[in-house]
Amino acid sequence: MPTLSSRITSLNAGGGDGWEIFYKARALVAAGQPVTELTIGEPDTKTDPAILAEMHRAASAGHTGYAVVPGTPALRDAIAARVTERSGVLTTRENVLVTPGGQSALFAAHMAACTPGGAALMVEPHYVTYPGTIRAAGAVPHSVQTRPERSFFPDPADLRRSAATSGASSLLINTPNNPTGAVYPRETLTGIADVAQEQDLWVISDEVYDTQIWEGAHLSPRALPGMAERTMVIGSLSKSHAMTGSRIGWLIAPEAAIAALIDLATNTTYGVPGYIQDAALYALTADATLEPRVAEPFRRRRALAQGILAAQNTVGLVPSGGAMYLFLDVRATGLSGIAFADALLDAHRIAVMPGESFGPSAAGFIRVALTLPDAEFSEALSTLAGFAAGLAKAA
User: Fold this and answer.
1) Distance in angstroms (rounded) separating the CA atoms of residues 198 and 60
2) How far apart are CA 323 and CA 302, in angstroms?
């Protein structure tokens, strides 16, 4: 066949995509072997039946044709009202682009912020798709590593140095953070804002876990002085409303950026199905208890995990202020995160994500999703801790 473009073949920079353990676990399941899945952030709470009923109603009523590309006016207004209320920053529909999930919004933001071949910063540990998304937008990803002794909060001095030396045009941050659970405090975000203004950076802020806050408070960098005009915010209903498969998200940005990004959407996604947008509008406006109901199991399992891990001294728990994951330090076993995850899957058929999937600064850590029923989750975590203790003793 003809040669594939380097744009496609270089998305993973010649390496893996970070999902190898996940693929191995799914292959075991396909072969008929039971696996306890603690890998992906798929809520065990399913989409609320009332949301699905509205989706069905809208489809049956005929909202199945082409929808207006930037999003229906009613949904854009609802998203704008939500963002205004939660952030304190006046937001209108002209600041909103509805996208097929948060991943699409991430790509669109980098298409807007980065020039072909230009540098784009991302804070590490980072979500698995970040480097490939940046490469897909034609830019070059540059990681800014964080350190466990700083609870994986970025150091503004490191950001400033990386921005100055790389000539980057954007900085991608994620709070609450996947995979670490870190919720950036105001001091950290103020430092990020200072660097962005000094170095003339776009800040691309992935805030899809903003409804899952266990300690502290969520603060969007867009709410800081001088930042609304240089910040793009990614939002989604995947995590807040357990609508992962519906593929419904948004991008918040200055009006001029949204106007340009509508052209991008016209030439790529051509919008989001209208009946899904109607269901999203219902989800955002009809029942204020939906989001707390989705989040509560993760809060509860986090507390269960803290109790289990407090009773042992091998596996370390990174302080988690939010999101639906725990980030665990398994360096005492003498294994890398990859080797530990592989050995755990082989020995106990428990699948977790190795820290190395999220960048080199997460080596020796693993990510555990809080996405199983309480009893099953507690049993799996206890088994994991016991397995780690045995490895540490043998090391």
Assistant:
1) 52
2) 10
User: What is the structure's pLDDT at 282?
Assistant: 98
DSSP 254-292: -HHHHHHHHHHHHTTT----HHHHHHHHHHHHS-TTHHH
Domain boundaries, the chain: 6-46+290-394, 49-285
C-beta contacts of 3-11 below 8 A and 24+ residues apart:
7/135, 7/136, 7/138, 10/135, 11/132, 11/135, 11/136
Tens of pLDDT along 212-247? Answer: 999 999 999 999 999 999 999 999 999 999 999 999
CATH of 49-285, one of 3.20.20.70, 3.60.40.10, 2.40.280.10, 3.40.640.10: 3.40.640.10
Show the tokens assigned to 387: 């397995």
Angle at 42 (CA atoms; ends 319, 275), nearest 5 degrees: 130
Residue 15 has pLDDT above 80, yes or no: no
Task: Specify the amino acid at residue 198.
Answer: E
Phi-psi map region of 177: left, alpha, beta (phi>0 left; psi -120 to 50 alpha)? beta
Distance (Å, whole) CA 102 – CA 269: 13
Tell which CATH architecture fits domain 6-46+290-394.
Alpha-Beta Complex (3.90)
Tally of CA atoms within 13 A in the half-sphere of 136 that contains its CB: 14
Name the DSSP letter for residue 331: G
> CA-CA distance, 22 to 323, in Å (whole number)?
20
For 92-126, the DSSP string reads -GGGEEEESSHHHHHHHHHHHH--TT-EEEEEES-
Banded pLDDT at 12 (limits 50, 70, 90): confident
Residue with tokens 């199905």: 273
pLDDT tens per residue, range 340-364? 999 999 999 999 999 999 999 999 9
